[in-house]
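Posting for a labmate who doesn't have an account.
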Amino acid sequence: MRSQSWVLIFIVAICVAGVISFFLLMSMGLFVPDRDAISLGSKVGLVEVTGTIVSSGPVVDDIVRFAKDDAIKAIVVRIESPGGVVAPAQEIYDALRKVRSEGKPVVASMGGVAASGGYYVACGADSIVANPGTLTGSIGVIMSFPNTQELFKKIGIDVQVVKTGEFKDLGSPTRPLTPDERQLVGDLIGDVYEQFVTVVATERRLEIEAVKKIADGRVMTGRQAYSLGLVDRLGGYRDAVMLAGELAGIKGEPTVVRHRKPRPSILDLIDQLTGLASKVTRDGVSMEYSLR
């Protein structure tokens, strides 16, 4: 009997310690219970693309996790972005297209703004849902170079450049572009523009020339985009979730799952700040090359 009592006390102690640990983790923000994440049955994974697109890593990681999870039957990508850097937008688009090609439905949900690179990402979905007042479109590429030559003259700074080739200091802020450099840059962004237009034409089943007529950087509303065939439906986030459920064969309202992002520690914040400072010091004034 005495040994049984000790076993019972040991089990109770473990349970109490577990409960205390749970509440401590919650109070520290290290664990947040998610009803959706622990519910049973088929689910829809939510991927969020927010702000200027400068990196694809975290978004692509979420897409890959959902693609491998058999309980996730469809993905909704919620876009709140004015665009961003070319390659990351292409990488997110490619990741969505791969999931779609493997048979898992993907629905894009446009929020307030889903333009340029944000629209590029949306093209990776089976269906695009936009609010009537969503700002979208802006199909085009931009590359800009700040010119501080006159400022440097006023403050007495003279920059001497030694280079191995004609275009090695392309985009230098100490002088304007030469005609040959303008031609080179024009060819470069022209190639990326053709890639963008081709993706839109292919995914939206439109003629290349029809896309080029509206691919002049113009911004349009969701309703205008719908009339031009750039989006499939007008509606909000819940409409996109329900559509994803329908495409996946889920009966009723789907359970939505999102990956929890860990809170950054003080060391993470310090690392980000020092990294930003070193980048500014190292790069100085840099060129812009983006979809927006």
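Reply:
Got it, the structure tokens are right above this. The chain has one domain: 39-261+285-291.
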